[in-house]
Sequence to fold (269 residues):
Amino acid sequence: MKYLALPLLITVSLVAPALAKDPAPAEPARPPSPGAKHSPRAPLWSYDGDTGPTKWSEIDPKFRLCQSGKRQSPIDIETQTVERGGLKPIMFNYAAGPLTLVNGNNTIQVNFTTSGGARLDGLEYKLVQMVFHAPSEEKIDGLATPISAQLIHRAGDTRTAVVAIRFKLGKENKALKPIFERLPKTDAFNETVESFNPADILPANPAYFTYMGSLTTPPCTEDVKWFVMRETVDISFRQLSAFKERYKSNSRPSQPVNGRRVQEYVEEQ
Fold:
């Protein structure tokens, strides 16, 4: 048996390079879409431990802004220091349309195609995606809410804007029912909802805060315009529990403001 081992090893070593000559061509990498989450099959980053927010910049060179960026999100908005006046109300042009639900590993990802958009800072944006974070990443005077939705908008290929809606415990949110009733129970999940109108989850009060920030997930791309709605919207304990049972805590800590201008729009009486 000792003499049989050598020929066998030689055979294997000769075959292995032959098999490696023509590897299958790799698929070209796609740039991350705003709010997109990584594949559940390869969780490169997370919200705790060695792959948590403080380590994101070390995981991939493309994530370096997560550490070095000076205009990162989320932030804790201090109402005593915000600028007031000079802003216009957000002109929401949302419409009912189909959506696709995808399990983004760290959150439920809602993809829109024909649900309209909004006029933000004088520019027309299209609504492309919505994600949820519990607790809310957005804080006002140090206080977070149990959960928030981030509605991600695009204008062309370079401009990104996020409208954040914060939820407080209260009545069942009927508008969110089609989404929260379909929270994925498996990693491989893709389901369509025939009709959903994003306007149905907007707060009645149009007041908002705005500032320049970033995506709150890797690669933490900056030059993202944020609009944080001041008024909260109800969500039931049962709905919140269903989300947290599936996704646990998925919020990035507040980032330094670094002297950024934070403004507030208040409806004129």
Observations:
- Helices lie at 2-19, 56-59, 65-68, 177-180, 237-247.
